[in-house]
Amino acid sequence: MRRHVNQRQAQVLELVRARGSVRVADLARELGISPVTLRRDIEAMAARGEIQRMHGAISRVDPGGRAPSSVSAASTAAVVGGGGGGRGGAAEGLVVGMVVPTTEYYYAEVVRGAREAVEARGARLTVGLTRYLQGEDRTQADRLLSTGAHGLLLTPNWEAGSPGPGEGAWTAELPVPTVLVERWAPPGHPAASLDRVSSDHAHGAARAVQHLVEQGHRRIALASRATPTTARLRAGYEAAVSALGLEPAPPWPPAGPGPLSDADMFARTLDYLCEAVTAGGVTAALVHSDTDAIMLIPRLQARGVRVPEDLAVITYDDEVAGMADVPLSAVAPAKHEVGARAAALLLDRLSTTAAPDTAPRQHLDLLPRLTIRS
Question: What is the mean pLDDT of the chain?
Fold first, then answer.
């Protein structure tokens, strides 16, 4: 048994010395062994100083005991060039890659927060856009790594904000420290072991419901088109309705076969809210997003539903809610702070004098803020 272990570890060492660095997942497939077995070998070999462990990858160790500077996962202290760990540690020369769906609307502030935090530490931010195209998130991540990114801020194209069945495992196999931004993975999923910074959308929805209850409303509806935020909004909304003992809003009618266009979804939402007010006893609604609410209100009024007399409206996002004819109260995720915290977390991990994998991983949920407008 011991002979087999020695032979396997010798084979790993030979491959790593020949290639410089290799991803753990790729190596396990190539050798035909389980990732668990390979990780045990890696731990033993790293303890003997034979290889250098990094996030999701291993590299050879030069005779001087250092990882070669040409390794793409050069996020260890040898590359950082001094500087202690913790917030404010040196990050000069580091390149942070950021993959987001867009730099418009919601993500404009997320990217701005990340850029300010990165540049304040002397590092540089490069951005890749996916436009929600299938597979483009991985393509952009690989592109940023190939151009020298030492770590990644990653917003994968997960339709529900979290990975679907068989989706997203590649994010945990990236060869550099990675922080998920405004995405989360359920316990047991490989990506659940990554650092994460996200808005607590469930809390935001629950806070909106709580405020409406404080204003005397007892039957509150949720209107949200399908976005990566919707599932968390609905979870918070439903939890608040249950915890506060409210009457449930009327159920949405079946959507019918096939996907709905934006126009169809808007018309369906308008019909639902009109019916919910006139026949269902609903007196308030949380609408995601601001633009939908601003477009809905005059159409509701044209059909005899007065806002706010018949239907009080709170919006979610707070991008343009204050610009409505009657400024709308809104819940605002801490978008700028999400980007800044994610960047700081990644730079702290990259700048530590210890191996980046030694510090405990973190899941940070930032609470959205409710802004009340008359």
Answer: 86
